[in-house]
Amino acid sequence: MNRATRLLAALITTGLIAVASGRVTFAAFTATTASPANAIASGTVSIADNDAGNVMWNVTNQLPTSPAIVRCIRVTYTGTLPATVRLYTTTAASALDPYLNVTVEKGTMPAATTFSNCTGFTSQATIAPTGTLQAFKTARTGWANGLQAFPGAQTAWNASDTLVYRFTVQVQTVFAAQGLTGLVGFTWEAQNQ
Amino acid sequence: MERRRNNQRTATRIRIVGFMLGMAVAAAVLGASKIPAGAGALGADISMVVAPIGELAVKHPGRVLAGTTLTPASDPATGGFTVLDQTMFPLLLRLRGIPDTPGLDRALWVELTGPDGEQLFRGSLGDFRDWTQDPVTLKPGVWSTFGLEAWIPGDVGPGYAGRMVQVDLGFRVTKVAS
Fold first, then answer.
1. Of A46, A104, B43, B108, whose CA is between 20 and 30 Å from A24?
2. Hey, of B6, B55, B174, B178, which one would you mutate to test binding to chain A, going by the most A CBs within 10 A of its CB?
3. Is A178 exposed, middle or buried (CB count within 10 Å of its CB: 0-12, 13-18, 19+)?
4. DSSP letter at A28?
5. A50 and B CB contact within 8 Å
6. What is the number of H-type helices and E-type strands within chain A?
7. Residues of B with CB below 8 A from A165's CB?
8. CA–CA distance, A115 with B171 (Å, rounded to integer)
9. pLDDT of A132-175, one tens digit each?
10. In chain A, which residues have their Cβ closer than 8 Å to the Cβ of B173?
11. Model pTM score
């Protein structure tokens, strides 16, 4: 390569470097967007279930030999902040409480299973081992001692999370249980973490 | 001496020609790679999100409609969602959409259709804040699909440009009177 050719090549290269710089410059002018409404909003904590105001069970003439009452309720977290949810009862004691065994499990269920059926329920854990309703009412009276559960292995409830609670209730084989009535309401409370 | 001068002249000419060639190549490449001019106006962006409530399950919670760079000339953004009555009763469902900013209340229009293709709402985003008048009846355990469209009508002025809005769809259910 003679001197003249080398010089020509060097000058052409200079021109090409200018092209590369020019492309970068053009690119810098293409990205435009707008952010007109910068807002800040507080989070929410709210929770709901699928009972539509109906009771989970209302049964009569139960015997110790009757099939256990098995009912499911789906709880949905409708807030936005990560939260803890606890289950408790504030219902006053009733005569049948010492003779009713209650078990509570958490799990999943097909969406198409409506309240208060448990078709397709898959248990994730037993969150309240079998004990009397009397014991439950004594132990779980509010947020401080409420029964805490999270969907699956999560450690917080997040927006749109759901969890199915399955209640199994059975009358004990105890003579004294005859002719008594038991009554209980359950409350789920959510608090942000 | 004369030969040296000739060589210098030749070298100078070569430099000039080389530089001009380089600039010509640069101009050609720049011309070829120039980014095309835009349409001249920014569009509007909209997203609609849906979340379950206690009585209703939602098949895919979250964003159910997304429209970007919407202009009066562009096609509508389309979307939809599917819900299920998970109570034990038939429910009457009314819907509405709450935008997180009023910036597109007049410019953006929305159409909501029910499971049978019936029109439940058609109007401005601002009017979509009110609950739909005619309820949809949902049967327990049955999925129902709703359709959504959002667009900017042709006669809207430039106020929409560059605006973004997120619309939270809301559900209100009541039991069917027995």
1. B43
2. B55
3. exposed
4. H
5. yes
6. 2, 8
7. none
8. 19
9. 999 999 999 999 999 999 999 999 999 999 999 999 999 999 99
10. 52
11. 0.76
| Cβ count near B177 (within 10 Å) | 5
Angstrom distance (rounded) from CA B139 to CA A41: 35
Tokens of A91: 């219902």
* Chain A from 62 to 81: CB within 8 A of any B CB: 74-76, 78
Closest CA of chain B from A79, distance in Å: 10
- Of the candidates A4, A115, A159, the beta carbon closest to that of B11 is on A4
- Best of B20, B46, B63, B87 to substitute, by most chain A Cβ atoms within 10 angstroms, is B87
Report the amino acid identity of residue B26: A
Q: Select the residue from A14, A19, A26 to test the B interface by mutation, using most B Cβ atoms within 10 A.
A: A19
Q: Let me know: does B149 contact B76? Beta carbons within 8 Å.
A: yes
DSSP string over A47-98: EEESSTT--S----S--TTSPPEEEEEEEEE--SS-EEEEEE--PPP-TTGG
